[in-house]
C-alpha cells in the first residue's frame, strides 16, 4: 500500500505579515497532482492543518476545497489535529465526512480505533490517528500518574497495541501522530509544547507500528526507518532557510517492510539571511542571487544607518526583517554597558542607554530633556511620599 505522508500545513499562516494563502494553494494543487501521478492509496496528514484555532475564512475554504478534490479521486485521507488546531472545531462532522473517505481523528478517547484500509490479498492496514495530546487535558482520560507527553502518548500507544492484538494476524499498523520525538531537530517556527519540563518523547513509544507518520517539527527528517517527519510544505521562519521542503511517499509491503521516497514541494520564493555593513550589502555582487528572495538582514555597522530598510528594499524588494547587531570590540564601553551601571548616577545611566541603543550618545539638548524627565520623576516620588 502506498501512502503520501505530509503535515504542518498551517493554513492561514502569514510570513512576517505576508499572506501565504496562495502559496499554500499551490502546494495543495501539487499534493493532489502527486496523489494522481503516483497512484497513492491514502494520504496521511499529521496535524497542524490550520495555523490557529479559529482560522481565517480563506484558509477554511482552501481546506474544504482540497478535501473535496481528494474525495473526488476516491483516495482516503487520515488527518489528525495538531497543537495549533482546535481539535473540536477540526473534528466537527467527522462521522459524516468519514463516509466520503476523509477520516478526521481529533478525539483522544477514540485514538485506538483505526481506519481500516483493505489491501487484498495481503490483509488490512490499520491506520491509527493520534491527535496532539496536551498532557494536562488528557491525563484523566488515560489515567496516567504524570501529566507529561511521554506518559500520555505512551498510554495512547498501549491502547493502540491492545487493539492491534485483536486484529487478524498480519494486519499492518500505521500511526499518524503529532509530537516532538527524541532525535528530531526543531526550528524557530514551531510552538513550544513543553509540559512538566518534558517535551521530547522516545521513539520507542511507537514500538509495534510498521510506520509512524509524524508532524510538529517543520524539517523533513528520519528518526529511524519506520519513524519519520514530513516537515512543513513551506518555510514559516528564516531558520528554515536551508531546509528542503518535501513529503514522504511511503510503500508499505505485505510483510510490513517500508520503502520511503522524498518528494520535493514547490518553493514559491527562497529565503536568505544576510549579514554585514549596509554599504556592503548594497554593493556586494555575490548577493545578486538573493534579490528575488525573502530577505532577513542583520546590519553590523558601528552606528545605525539612516533609513536602512528603505535603502535595502531598493536592492532586495522582498526584504521582510531587519536587525541591528553592531560589531564592537569586547572592551568597547558600549559592549560592556551592563558592567558600567554600578556606581553611576541616573543621568549617566540614561545617557549610556541612549548610546548603547542608538550607537552614539545624546547631544546637549537631549541631555537636558533626560535631566528634566529624571527631575520630574523624583519630584513625583517625593510628593507621593508626602501624601
Automatic annotation (TrEMBL):
Residues 1-89 form the Calcineurin-like phosphoesterase domain. SUPFAM superfamilies: Metallo-dependent phosphatases. The keyword Nuclease applies. GO terms for molecular function: 3'-5' exonuclease activity; endonuclease activity. CDD domains: MPP_Mre11_N. One of its GO terms (biological process) is DNA replication. It comes from the Bacteria. Gene3D superfamilies: 3.60.21.10. Residues 268-356 form the Nuclease SbcCD subunit D C-terminal domain. InterPro entries: Calcineurin-like_PHP (IPR004843), DNA_Repair-Maintenance_Comp (IPR050535), Metallo-depent_PP-like (IPR029052), Mre11_N (IPR041796), SbcD (IPR004593), SbcD_C (IPR026843). Pfam families: Metallophos (PF00149), SbcD_C (PF12320). Keywords: DNA recombination, DNA replication, Endonuclease, Exonuclease, Hydrolase, Nuclease. Belongs to the SbcD family. Heterodimer of SbcC and SbcD. SbcCD cleaves DNA hairpin structures. These structures can inhibit DNA replication and are intermediates in certain DNA recombination reactions. The complex acts as a 3'->5' double strand exonuclease that can open hairpins. It also has a 5' single-strand endonuclease activity. This is Nuclease SbcCD subunit D.
Amino acid at each position: 500500500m502506498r501512502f503520501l505522508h505530509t503535515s504542518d500545513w498551517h493554513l492561514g499562516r502569514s510570513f512576517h505579515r505576508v499572506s501565504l494563502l496562495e502559496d499554500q494553494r499551490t502546494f495543495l494543487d501539487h499534493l493532489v497532482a502527486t496523489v494522481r501521478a503516483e497512484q497513492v492509496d491514502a494520504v496521511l496528514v499529521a496535524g497542524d492543518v490550520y495555523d490557529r484555532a479559529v482560522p481565517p475564512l480563506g484558509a477554511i475554504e482552501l481546506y474544504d476545497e482540497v478535501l473535496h478534490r481528494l474525495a473526488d479521486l476516491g483516495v482516503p485521507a487520515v488527518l489528525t489535529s495538531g497543537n495549533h488546531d482546535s481539535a473540536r472545531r477540526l473534528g466537527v462532522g467527522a462521522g459524516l465526512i468519514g463516509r466520503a473517505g476523509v477520516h478526521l481523528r481529533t478525539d483522544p478517547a477514540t485514538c485506538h480505533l483505526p481506519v481500516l484500509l483493505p489491501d487484498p490479498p495481503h490483509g488490512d492496514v490499520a491506520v491509527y490517528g493520534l491527535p496532539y495530546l496536551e498532557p494536562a487535558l488528557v491525563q484523566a482520560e488515560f489515567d496516567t500518574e504524570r501529566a507529561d507527553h511521554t506518559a500520555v502518548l505512551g498510554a495512547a500507544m498501549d491502547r493502540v497495541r491492545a487493539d492491534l492484538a485483536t486484529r487478524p494476524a498480519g494486519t499492518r499498523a500505521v500511526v499518524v501522530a503529532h509530537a516532538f520525538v527524541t532525535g528530531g531537530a526543531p526550528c524557530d517556527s514551531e510552538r513550544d509544547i513543553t509540559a512538566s519540563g518534558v517535551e521530547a518523547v522516545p521513539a520507542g513509544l511507537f514500538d509495534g507500528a510498521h510506520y509512524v507518520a509524524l508532524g510538529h517539527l517543520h524539517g523533513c527528517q528520519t528518526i529511524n526507518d519506520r519513524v519519520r517527519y514530513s516537515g512543513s510544505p513551506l518555510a514559516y521562519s528564516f531558520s528554515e532557510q536551508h531546509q528542503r521542503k518535501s513529503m514522504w511517499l511511503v510503500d508499505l509491503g505485505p510483510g510490513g517492510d517500508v520503502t520511503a521516497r522524498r518528494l520535493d514541494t514547490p518553493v514559491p520564493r527562497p529565503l536568505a539571511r544576510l549579514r554585514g555593513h549596509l554599504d556592503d550589502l548594497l554593493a556586494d555582487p555575490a548577493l545578486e542571487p538573493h534579490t528575488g528572495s525573502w530577505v532577513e538582514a542583520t546590519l553590523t555597522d558601528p552606528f545605525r544607518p539612516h533609513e536602512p530598510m528603505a535603502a535595502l528594499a531598493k536592492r532586495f524588494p522582498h526584504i521582510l526583517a531587519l536587525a541591528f547587531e553592531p560589531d564592537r570590540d569586547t572592551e568597547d564601553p558600549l559592549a560592556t554597558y551592563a558592567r558600567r551601571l554600578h556606581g553611576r548616577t541616573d543621568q549617566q545611566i540614561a545617557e549610556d542607554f541612549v548610546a548603547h541603543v542608538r550607537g552614539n550618545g545624546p547631544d546637549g539638548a537631549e541631555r537636558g530633556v533626560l535631566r528634566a524627565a529624571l527631575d520630574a520623576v523624583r519630584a513625583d516620588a517625593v510628593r507621593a511620599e508626602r501624601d
